[in-house]
Amino acid sequence: MTLHITNGDCAADLLRASGIGGDVLPWRDVLHEGPVPAGLDLAALSHVRADFISSMGWGDAAAVRRDFQTRDTTLAAADTHDGVVLWFEHDLYDQLQLVQLLDWFATHPHRSLQLVCDAEYLGTASPERLRARFPTRHAVTAAQLDLGRRAWEAVRSPTPDAVDRLRNGDCSALPFFGAALVRLLEELPAVGTGLSRTEHQALLALRPGGVTLEAAFQVAHDEDPVFLGDTVFASIAARLARGPEPLLDGPTLTSAGHDVLDGGRDWAVTGGLDRWLGGVHVVGPRPWRWDSAARRTVAPA
After folding, report:
1. Integer angstrom CA distances of residue 203 from 247, 254, 282
2. Paired residues of 62 in beta bridges
């Protein structure tokens, strides 16, 4: 029997309905939010991730821990399946999950590991479309396993220059991963404003006033490829409403919010940053930054 591993419950349900057969494992982790520190094995990292997810109010703590434990136990038993097929998309959310799994399989080889990954979304497809895509799967190559291993190490590094170096190298083994790494780096505080790209897009969407968070989400996540969910967007808006000088009051920009968008102040300096991006702790007034003009990371001065 085949084990199919995919990004979340929507895609998992569609795979079950497709008639392809086999067991289906949804990976279910939003790795571009919260801590993903280096030096932890899968079980220890899953504890960190479960604690973060429950702390955000995205699930009951005990239930989230059980889900991660069940997920990891299923993965550990992958060698009991005749084959493993990884089903992922081209966006940041999926590409981070994919390299975590490639890192696992680099050290836990499977005799038949295959991949389905194109510039096509899974969760909005039909069961018939997934059944049609199944024959397009291909064997995961040694180069893909090696890049996945190096990528997962870089994403978990405590400084983002490791990601910057990797994405400036040869990422051709995973054709969508280089762009995903750039999108990850864009979530660092920007030079000048201290806002991540998503925070900036959220404030722009809300700036006209009279805009609900739901409507702002539709504007703010209008990018290609789409990776951001509405629950994460709501948490980002809540983050912008905290700190010594909040940028939002509900869905309304404060004077500080207007000033930051206009370039009059730097939220990293005044806002008391304290969040994680992969292995990077984005904290304090002098964090690592992203220079969008030069397209590179900038170390704390």
Report:
1. 8, 10, 20
2. none
